[in-house]
Amino acid sequence: MSKPIIEERLYIGNIDYSVTEDDLRAYYEGLSVEQVELPTKTLFKHSKTKKPIIRTLGFGFVQFSSKDEADKALEKTDGQEIKGRTVFAKKAHPPPTEEERKQRAEDWKKFKQERKAKKEGVKPADAAEKKAEKPAEAASSNGPRKKKQDTNKTPSGVTSEDTVFVTNLDFKATSESLHETFEPLNPKWVHVPPKRVPRYLLKQIKQKNKPLYNRGIAFVKFSDHESQQRAIAEFNGSEVNGRQIIVEAAVNKPESEEPEEAEEAEEAEETATGNEAVEEAAALEEAA
């Protein structure tokens, strides 16, 4: 079920990173603007000055004094250019409640358990027990790894009805920042797989406080097929952190195929809500 909209508030996407709050106020000159918000993110600290570098996330919110003013702004904005970039606009949704945040975390945990149980051929309730019974040596096997296919390509299988596959993603993007990008469509969860590195290198990365980048791909799950199709139509080809992302329908791998490639896509998850259950799944991604 779609969330209600805030009639006096606009969500504006695909905003150029150089756009400021004053720029948006100037753009809406003549309309009654009450508030402008451009969410920001600290990317990294300068190597010499050690000062954090802060950048906007490519979207924003504008609060108007009335529904009529917001309607005029929507007509003025959607599909138009601001500082050389075509933006899209729509009425904003209220932020998720605490109950909704908890439900998102529960939905992700349930999804993860069901997929894992399906792979192992056991009931969801027995999945944890079977994992505990696996020989310890299996986790530390020194056998050669199988060569994996290019994970930047869409795998073959049954097309998903509610999930999209994002490629050409900036390697510094996170589940949180990507969740903000798709926020107008209220995604259930977002998963940005981190790069796989040997354990000894992971330890060094943590000790040196260096970031662990992603693999350039992501999965975003929505509540229904309509939201999935809107995500493809509205975000395919849009810029995220300076790169044009490719958004297409994800696929569910056939049961007969080896699940090795999909395994990483179920190991971590983090939403913009900051739920502890989801943050735990994204521990590797937040190693820095």
TrEMBL record:
Compositionally biased region (Acidic residues): 257-270, 277-288
Compositionally biased tracts (Polar residues): 152-161
One example GO MF annotation: mRNA binding
Start and end residues of each stretch annotated as Disordered: 72-161, 251-288
UniProt domain RRM: residue ranges: 8-94, 162-252
Gene Ontology biological process terms, A to Z: nuclear mRNA surveillance; poly(A)+ mRNA export from nucleus
Any one GO CC term of the record: nucleus
SUPFAM superfamilies tied to this protein: RNA-binding domain, RBD
Biased composition annotated in UniProt, kind: Basic and acidic residues: 72-84, 96-111, 117-136
Source species, domain of life: Eukaryota
Keywords of this entry: RNA-binding
Protein name listed in UniProt: RRM domain-containing protein
Native species: Candidozyma duobushaemuli
